[in-house]
Predict the structure.
Amino acid sequence: MTETKPFRSGIVALLGKPNAGKSTLLNAITGAKLSAVSALPQTTRERTAGVHTSDDCQIVFADLPGLITPGDRLNETLRDNVLEGIAQVDAVLHLIDVADDKPLPDEIVEALARVKAPVILAVNKIDGKRAQVDAGSWAGERIPAAQRKLYRAIVGISAQTKKNLPELLAQITRLLPEGPHLYDPDVLTDKDLRFLAQEMIREKLFLHLHEELPYATAVLVDEFKEREGAKWYVAATIYVERESQKGMVIGKGAEMLKKISQGARADIERLCDAPVFLELRVKVRENWRKKEHDLRFFGYQGRSQKRRK
């Protein structure tokens, strides 16, 4: 008689420095584009849950912003959201870029010290010239022994090529408690299409704008209408902090805004599996990253803000 495996389920927080590949990993595991991805750090701003379901487990991955030393109220809020996100989970997946010469900054060490759940280390981007890197040996050379003892397992992966993702999922599953599905088996994320469309637009801002400008932008979807027999209608506003930035987002002859719109519309159409008419506007909201009420307006609300209400 074949013994049936117990079904396991739980929430796993993705922790790491900016650009460690957390959003790429979430998208690779779920097979859907749920989080904005760019080569720039701090692309992720809001917690996005990606759901992986198999015959014996359901893992809810919480993609959190990368941890950095905050320089404004926005990044203070993002830090608060990360610390809040790792406080009540069943496991933590610590992601490190294999090319990172300083993989354990103070912010990450302090965050890991707060974690009571089991932690797995995933050494990411083991591909290309680094395809033969052994994750255990790499960790032995770059991570102090006291820190390595915190990890239940060390797995070398490539989120880009999906290398060793089955092994990573198996290691995570072993750490989860027995329990029922947390979401319907067909669900891939806790976010709706409106939010995902917003992320697709924001990703294109990070892709096409330069230097500090992407960080000064925020996006809100104002209307999202599903229309049978016609193009779906999506209207969104891109907010910047200064009038001079508005012109840079729009570009000469509106060429930059057109480029952003075309790329975002293609992604939204794939997401919705329907033709889409996307209308983008650009508005100024002065110094929004430094103001509590503006952070609440955009939905970036951490524990410190809740206490101030």
In short: Confidence is low (pLDDT under 50) at residues 302-309. The first strand starts at residue 8 and ends at 16. Residues 8-175 form a domain with the Rossmann fold fold (CATH 3.40.50.300). The chain has two domains: 8-175, 193-308.
